[in-house]
Amino acid sequence: MNNRLLKNIDAIPALPESVQAVERVYHDKESSFEDLQKVIEKDPLLTADILRAANAPLYGLKRQVTNVQQAVSLLGRDVIRSFALSSAVDSNFTINLAPYKMSKEQFSLACERQLGLAIAWLIRREPKRLAYLAPAAFLVDLGRVIISKTLIEEGNEAKIQEALDEGKTIAQAEKFACGAQATDVTATLFNHWHFEPDIIHLIRYSDDPEGTYGVERDMAAELKAIRETVLPNGSIAEDSIAEAKETIEEFELDLKSYERALEHVLES
């Protein structure tokens, strides 16, 4: 990871106070849904962001969500926390992904589809894992925004595409361009923001689940399969699905529930 990249991570401000308040309530075991609702409603912009996200067709709600109470009760604390963190990203980052030849809309679609797939895959089978996988799936590729900013500042905007044209994977292209892949950058940023170590480890190992074990290994493999399914520009292709299924089979994950979840995402 080059020095400019590290400086750009260090320069990112703390989470907005309203999102820090959401984090405090979320991690308080004695807190209730009502406590989370109240802290969100103190910030009208955060409230609007969460309601807009909750009403996206991808999350499968059968009726329009008109207030925070409905959003929290229908989608749960883990998903609402992810929406709050996404709101913080919008306020802290100028998203310019020119080195990847991607638009902000494509990047946002990829994040949304990854979260939607995680929810649909795990909500009935392993709902407790969403505490880690919801924010991880939604924000795992945030490092690409910081990588892009760094490459543009260095005048190395073309390096990612040069490496991709040579047949490198996107992670290899990122390492070639700035010495770190997106997952490493995101994990370093999350450490900067004082996120819980479990999410940081999950993101770091999502490229190589074999590096860990037990439940963490399974979750890292699930996150890997989610990222393989949804391409960086938000599209889903036959090849990307096939790659994800290879990971699911390798790590003996639940293929049938993945296929049902994928069908939901593709229909949304």
Q: Sketch the topology as an H/E string, one letter per element.
A: HHHHHHHHHHHHHHHH
Termini, distance in Å? 37 Å
Radius of gyration: 18 Å
Number of strands: 0
Helix count, DSSP H or I runs of 4 or more residues: 16
CATH topology: Hypothetical protein af1432
| Quaternary form | single chain
Class derived from helix and strand content? mainly alpha
CATH second-level architecture: Orthogonal Bundle
Report low-confidence residues grouped into runs of 5 or more. Answer: none
What spatial form do the alpha-carbon principal axes imply?
globular
Strand content: under 5%
Number of domains: 1
The top-level CATH class is: Mainly Alpha
Major sheet summary line: none
The H-level CATH homologous superfamily, spelled out, is Hypothetical protein af1432
Question: How would you describe this structure to a colleague?
Answer:
- It is a single chain.
- By secondary structure, the chain is mainly alpha-helical.
- It has helices spanning 3-10, 17-27, 33-41, 44-54, 68-75, 77-92, 104-122, 130-139, 143-154, 159-165, 170-178, 182-192, 197-205, 214-229, 238-250, 255-267.
- The N and C termini lie far apart (37 Å).
- The mean pLDDT is 93.
- The longest helix is centred in the middle third of the chain and has 19 residues, at 104-122.
- Helix 2 runs antiparallel to helix 6 (77-92).
- Helix content is 68%, strand content 0%.
- It contains 16 helices and no strands.
